[in-house]
Amino acid sequence: MKRYFYLLVAMALLASCTTEIVNNQDSDFVSSVTMTATDFVMDGDTRTNLDLTTSGLSFTWAESDIVGIFPNAGDQVKFPMTAGAGTKSASFDGGGWALRNNYSYAAYYPFSKDNYERSYTALPITYLGQSQSANNSTDGMGAYDYMVATASMPESGSVAFNFQHIGSVLYLQLTTPDAATFTKLTLSADEAIFTTEATMNISNGTLTPTATSKEMTLDLANISVEANEKLYAWMLIAPVDASGKTLKAKVKTSDLKDYLVELAGKTFETGKAYKLEGALSKANTLVTNGYEYVDLGLPSGTLWAKKNVGATSIADYGNYYAWGETETKSDLSEETYKWLKIETFTDGDGFETTGKTFTKYWASGASVTNYTCIVDNKYVLYLEDDASYVNWGGSCRMPTYEDCQ
């Protein structure tokens, strides 16, 4: 997994070279190659205090890193790193496999065993599933920082690949008005401008989108931020021209509140990092489990659904349910009520009598003529009897008296 560090200046590109992959340990072949990665350079419009007055994001190799190398004809071979962990330029060894002259090579990172027998011109990649473990942490970026390199004739008996990043880094700095613990960040646009899945041609670094979306998400591992402090979030996206567009950043908290901010889009280019800053404000309308809720500002803090269960619009009545039941029905007579037991028996005088007993959700002191009531003093529905919870899931439920306060 790659490591990222802030860099005072962007590093210059190094020369590249090349060779064919053969199963040979002869000295005429090169089995150990050098892999060098360039840095993400901060976009010129945002070359300000990223951190400690730095202006770029530096890359270094980690001990367990593996790259895949394709010859211009044939399958990939994996080259694990053998030396240079923690540096920009490391040595990788193909074991029994080596490179030789007169062949062109293309390399990519991160390595995937699923790419055997695939064409190096169409390796699948995804930007879905990104996550961040702590505020301002870049540890989750490595799996999505796709890099490519090509090599030609070896020089002085050595082969060097110079990797180029094909994605764009977004560095979001969002000031929160309240102390909160954040669980997810969603960046959205009015159009499906974000590439979520693509194929990558590693010989030239071009991407061909196979799936797009209006939004990108970043899972946040319960990151706590104090009031008036910043949430620092890192996200990798495919290059896209978002100039003139308004991007919306929404962050969700552990107590299901949403905070929003609008950000100005720009042209996000390959190999560049962009800082996006804004001040979050609490959203009046929240979304959980796909359903919209409104915060009415009550002391209880209860969030209220904008529509009834089963409704297709705010004005729609939605479904009808008997108390303590979770399925709709056309017959709402007492004979169909789940918690009313109706029994017919013959009394001592030979007359047929019907007994009716409420078996659940009955308070002491309450009575109704000709009915028997089993008192349980249960005023709030059990979740398995709550139509809102059963049909909508999550933390949805029927409101209580206290919720209305």
Overall mean pLDDT stands at 82
Low-confidence stretches: 5-28, 44-55
Oligomer: single chain
Helix fraction? under 10%
Top CATH class of the domain at 3-283 = Mainly Beta
**Separation of the first and last Cα atoms:** 51 Å
Explain what the structure shows.
By secondary structure, the protein is mainly β. The chain has a domain at 3-283: Immunoglobulin-like. It contains one helix and 32 strands. It has a seven-stranded mixed beta barrel. The chain has a six-stranded mixed sheet with strand order 1-5-4-25-15-20, with no helix packed on it. The longest helix is centred in the last third of the chain and has 6 residues, at 387-392.
Topology:
Layout: E1 3-7, E2 21-23, E3 32-37, E4 40-42, E5 56-60, E6 66-71, E7 77-83, E8 89-93, E9 97-99, E10 105-109, E11 123-126, E12 130-132, E13 147-151, E14 160-165, E15 168-175, E16 180-188, E17 194-201, E18 206-213, E19 215-225, E20 230-237, E21 240-241, E22 246-253, E23 258-264, E24 267-268, E25 272-279, E26 281-282, E27 285-288, E28 291-295, E29 303-305, E30 340-346, E31 352-358, E32 372-373, H1 387-392
Parallel strand pairs: 3-14, 4-25, 12-19, 15-25, 31-32
Antiparallel strand pairs: 1-5, 2-9, 3-8, 4-5, 6-7, 6-10, 7-8, 10-13, 11-17, 13-14, 15-20, 16-19, 16-22, 17-18, 21-24, 22-23, 23-26, 27-28, 28-29, 30-31
Descriptive tags:
1% helix; elongated; six-stranded mixed β-sheet; Immunoglobulin-like; 405 residues
What's the gist of this structure?
This protein is mostly beta strands and 405 residues long.
